[in-house]
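Operator note (shift B, R.M.): manual run for EF-hand domain-containing protein D1 isoform X2 requested after the automated queue skipped it. Running by hand, logging everything below so the morning shift can see what happened. Input copied straight from the record, untouched. If output looks odd, do not overwrite the archive copy; leave it for review.
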Amino acid sequence: MELKLMMEKLGAPQTHLGLKTMIKEVDEDFDGKLSFREFLLIFHKAAVGELQEDSGLMALAKLSEIDVALEGVKGAKDFFEAKVQALNSASKFEAEIKAEQDERKQAEEKRRLRQAAFRELKAAFST
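Run finished. Output pasted below as returned.
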């Protein structure tokens, strides 16, 4: 599912069978999943020409690289800055979620403290 979502976000959506074929192509331990090592193997195979030109893995490799000789240093700089910006925006989203969770925890802690203080006052007036 993660591979499917990644391919969609990169603008190269794949069918379920296409995704299974992609995984089989680099699945060294035959568990039907991609480990980090197997994910890196995609780029190694692309670099040495072991991937078919029309395969989904080749599309993934091409979407994740830039030819500095063709694009020039400025093009490569722009490419990597765009990648960093995309990662940062994802990180900002995660930071916002974490901040909301922290706020909820603090609000819950304040509520517990208020309840404890109320119980103490109630006990003082009950006796």
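Quick read of the result: The mean pLDDT is 78. The chain has two domains: 1-64, 71-126.
Leaving this for review. - R.M.
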